[in-house]
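Is phosphoenolpyruvate placement plausible here? Inputs below.
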Amino acid sequence: MRTLIAGNWKMNGLKSSLAEIQAIAEGVGSGSDAVEALICPPATLIAAASDAAADSGLQIGAQNCHAAMSGAHTGDISAAMLKDAGASHIILGHSERRTDHGELSTYINAKVLSVFDAGLVPIVCVGESLADREAGLTEKVVLGQLEASLPRECADTSFVVAYEPIWAIGTGRTATPAQIGEVHTSIRGALATRFGDNGNTAPILYGGSMKPANAADILAVEDVNGGLIGGASLKAADFLAIYETAM
Ligand code: PEP
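Reply from A.M.:
I modeled the complex. Tokens:
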């Protein structure tokens, strides 16, 4: 399984930020057999970013999509449109969408199917709040989100899971390798039980204040197959330092 180093730019980036994409694409070069690189800029930049990354190993993804492919959904964007713009992956169920837009796992499940229909790869995010963790509910919450967010079609189609403890996102507070390992091992067990071989090979990313200084420790944890990186993916130098660490 190749390690996946994925950047989530969230609602950051203007046309002037394409210089960072260009720099990342140059750093990634023709790519590597060991590590995949992906940047998910805001939807407004996907087409230009995929042009900037053309001829490099850098892939461009999206941060969300609607569950339908087209129709009367003012302001929404479908998986087919994101594919048309150059996206290879779509992040779904990020905790900021679950919180800001009230997205439930059942709705995320429908979006995963639309991403499969478009022929793209979903990156499905799960993670507990600090209150969940302190109440000893981490495994129950994370596995519950996984069960409801992933359709049975995951047995035959490529998908990615990102474990992102909400209390570690954008806070500078990173889960410890032991905390990460415990959750990733549970996720791997649940995926393997439900989806067989595909569940054994689906990459499981860690996300939450990952940066060059902690990437080596996190990527060394068993069942960690890459990272989903917010803040530290905005600067080419930081993203590339994490990418190099994963080699
Ligand atoms: C994220 O947005 O998915 C994330 C993990 O953010 P950060 O790396 O900034 O914590």
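Short version: The chain has ten helices and eight strands.
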